[in-house]
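Reading a protein record of the kind used here takes only a little practice. An example makes this concrete, so a full record is given next.
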Amino acid sequence: MILPPLVKGCFVRRDNRFRATVTVAGRQAWAHVPNSGRLRELFTPGQSIWLSPAGDPGRKTAYDLRVVKYSGTLVSVDARLPNPLLAEALTDERLPGFTYPEIRREVTLGDSRLDFRLSGPEGVCWIETKSVTLVTDGLAQFPDAPTARGRKHLSELMKARASGDRAAVVFVVQRADAHRFSPHGQADPLFATRLHHAAAAGVEIYAFTCNVSLESISLAAEIPIALL
């Protein structure tokens, strides 16, 4: 996936969930943060960041915060990207075992809207994607804050599996330095427990790293799951 043209800046502070103060070319500005996670390890004063100009003169935030450089690693912080990244991989048939002739996005299931409904001669497969930015010593973890929405999605996937459909959750680690994935029980023990239950119920769990540059981002390697 090609990223929009980016400009370099410096992180100053996070004002609220979706807005940060940054500096670009020595001047302070507001940037939209397209991620509701805490990202505390990434958002520290003085951190090098890359932003895309908003292009809308009427918008309060002049930029979208896209990439952070953390310990020498480029990290995409845009939580909107895992869905189109997976769509791109599914369309190009780059995910073994997920070749379905019909791919629908943002489909309602129960009380939730899941990212994908795949269908074909083999039946129906439901997929929900999750954006991961937290990596510690090679271990990617999700979430970094309590997520009632994430727990609800897992429950819907379990119901789909119980009805006979295939179901999967895909954790997209938007950086290249992870070697395995596990749920972050300290941040949300209920999510970690529900992910264990989902696995036991037959929901498939996958995690992929990403190749991130200042020009593009793409799915890279699948990494093993450690349900601690």
